[in-house]
Design brief:
Layout: H1 2-9, H2 13-35, H3 40-48, H4 64-74, H5 84-97, E1 103-111, E2 114-123, E3 126-127, H6 134-137, E4 139-140
Antiparallel strand pairs: 1-2, 1-4, 2-3
Helix pairs in contact: 2-4, 2-5, 3-5, 4-5
Length: 159
């Protein structure tokens, strides 16, 4: 742990700022997913309706591939529980804050032990935070394939 801390303190200032932003978006996505327990439709609406920030980086200057790299990097420490959905929501929120319109994707595959689910982000038809062949490995759900619970129906964590 000390070695990782030492490495993070030796980052270039610009990388340190990007790493801090990645942490901030991971924490924000954890709040939305785990604490508020927002359903997927609500999370997607939040991403789609995000207003671009007044930050100095415009959409043209924003390097979303670098942002994806940093979210994946910082999610290992101290967030080993930050799985694909949380990382994808964090990246989508970050991209939306820059005026970009990311596409949060979901997929599943059948395995010997059951079904594995996965999520990733696409932009302009290109996979951003995962391997390019993720669509072949996991069958992609369309919006119509993912029904939402109706109002008043029990959701996750409710009985």
């Amino acid at each position: 742990m000390l070695r990782r801390l030492k490495r993070s303190l030796s980052l270039r200032p610009v990388d340190f700022v990007v790493a801090l932003r990645a942490y901030a978006y991971l924490i924000r996505s954890a709040w939305i997913i785990f604490i508020k327990r927002e359903p997927t439709r609500s999370v997607r609406n939040r991403i789609d309706s995000a207003a671009p920030s007044d930050d100095s980086l415009s959409a043209q200057d924003f390097n979303y591939e670098r942002a994806a790299l940093w979210i994946n990097r910082v999610s290992r420490v101290p967030f080993p529980w930050a799985r694909c959905y949380q990382r994808s929501v964090a990246l989508s929120m970050w991209m939306s804050s820059r005026g970009l319109k990311p596409d949060l994707k979901f997929g599943a595959r059948r395995t010997e032990k059951g079904i594995d689910a996965h999520s990733w982000v696409e932009y302009g038809g290109e996979v951003i935070n995962d391997s390019p062949n993720v669509r072949e490995v996991f069958g992609t759900f369309t919006q119509a394939d993912a029904p939402e619970a109706e109002a008043g129906a029990p959701g996750r964590g409710q009985k």
